[in-house]
Amino acid sequence: MVFFKNTLLILYLCVMVLACSKQEKISVVEEKDAESQMIEAFKEGYEEFENGDVLFAAKKFNEAELLFPQSPWAPKAALMSAYVYYSQDYYYDAEAELIRFIKTYPKHKDLPYAHFLLAICYYEKIVDEKKDLAPLIKAKDKFNFIIDTYPNTDFALDSKYKIDLIDDYLAAKEMYIASHYIKKKKWIAAINRYKTVIEKYEKTIFVEEALHRLVELYFTLGLKNESQKYASILGYNYQSSIWYEKSYKIFNKNYKSKTQLRKEKKSILKKFKKLFN
Q1: Measured on CA atoms in the order 212, 216, 221, 224, is the torsion positive or negative?
Q2: Rounded-to-integer distance, Cα 3 and Cα 100, Å
Q3: CA 116 to chain centre
Q4: For 216, which of 91, 153, 190, 264 is 20 to 30 Å away at the CA?
Q5: Averaged confidence pLDDT in the chain
Q6: Which of 95, 145, 101 is nearest to 120 (CA)?
Q7: How do residues 10-28 score in pLDDT, each as one tens digit?
């Protein structure tokens, strides 16, 4: 009887070992099958991307990620999905994919690139700085994040260049609003906008004009000391500028620029030549 029980136990253990072995084998086969499906979907997505079918390509990359999410190719598929949307100007779809990538793969080696591409998506949506500032502000915040977080990367260098361009847009916006206030004779409001340009966007091409406008406005308001202060700043930094000549003329009504003197010389020369014709 004891022998019979021992025999049954041995048989049971053998069956369990075989069952586990079979289950493990099936699991490995299924895993390999999922991986092969993922690779096939990835390849198909890339082929469709090259053929120009962006929407279907993005779908296949998403499919590849879902088929085998533990694979190192899964985050690559997610990033490719974002990039194919971006490549054809589907910026909102690209943004959604990139935001998801950043949340899903917070330690991935391509995270700097994901942040940079997201910033570029915001940047590419800048259409008219006079109407919508949201893309400008989002892009600048994201580029600053890249500079602070990944300072030693090529993305940081490119981000600095992009911020300079964004500052030009933002300064242009301030100049546009200031000129609108001048038309309405809202001098103080205009002054505040020009001050914003010289304080926040001192590296832009609009600083010289903003300084000159402050000279004009303060002079108009009878605040000559303030007017002279900004004229001095303009002269110290941009003495060869046409805006400095205009500011100088405010205080020296009889001042004639080099261009005006040349024109007068030409006019005198013409009159002189007529005497001998």
Answers
A1: positive
A2: 62
A3: 8
A4: 264
A5: 80
A6: 95
A7: 433 343 444 444 444 334 4
